[in-house]
Amino acid sequence: MFREFLIIALLTALGAAYSLVSGLAPLPWAEPELEAGEIRLIDARVLDVIWVDARSESEFADGHAPDALFYDQADPAGSMADILEQWLQEPRLIVVYCTDEGCGTSKKIAEELRVNLPDAEIYSLKGGWSAWLE
Amino acid sequence: MVGINARRFFGLIARLVLASVFISAALPKLKDPVAFAAAIDAYRTISGSWAMAAATVLPWLELIIAVGLLTPWLRRASAWIMALLLGLFIALHLSAWARGLNIDCGCFGESGSSPDYHWLILRNLALLLATVFILRIAQRNKNAPESTL
Description:
heterodimer, A: 5-stranded parallel sheet, B: 149 residues
């Protein structure tokens, strides 16, 4: 029966290799470093978080994270009030995202939130909305 | 003679049911291992790279043992691995239930719904019993000609 286990192990390894090569699963060594204040989508999705969308209104309308709050940069006070209201109702992690890896808006807004909500745990999403689409 | 035929018949049914359950569990997880890794993470036993590694390997293992169960050449090893996996899943569900975790089972890909632990554990117990039944038949047939589908 050892030969049977070996065949199953080899076939499983081949299958896993296929997943890595085809891009279905990320390569372990390709995993990007996290900066301070960032969170990966894989970690954020298992938690009950308040999503804050820092993209444009049209991008938000095209699609956004479940129950995400739109951060209107033309009305930062109003947007901050909405986030504060959500957080006070049920304090939980706040994750801000913008378009993609290169976008710095989510980090900026996360910093502003940390000033206004010092008791809250606030992160910016690594990879932004692009991470959702992958 | 009738007893042997009944055993073979129920053995075939058990193999078909187990194979179809494991194949339907494996396929959505093969398509989206990242989502499955998130579900594994929620059990708070392994996380990060380990969860991703498990999410990459486990669906393939499920698929291969499901198909292996239907072949005479890999049936016994597949049944053993299946029994071990089912035992592991039951232990994980019991652990999550005891810790009050609100998880997405991740059994058939991401469902997004809250788990019904009773149903999850009973279902896996039933599947485990079917696997043990197959192992017993395989043990009896060890020196006999292999049965075919």
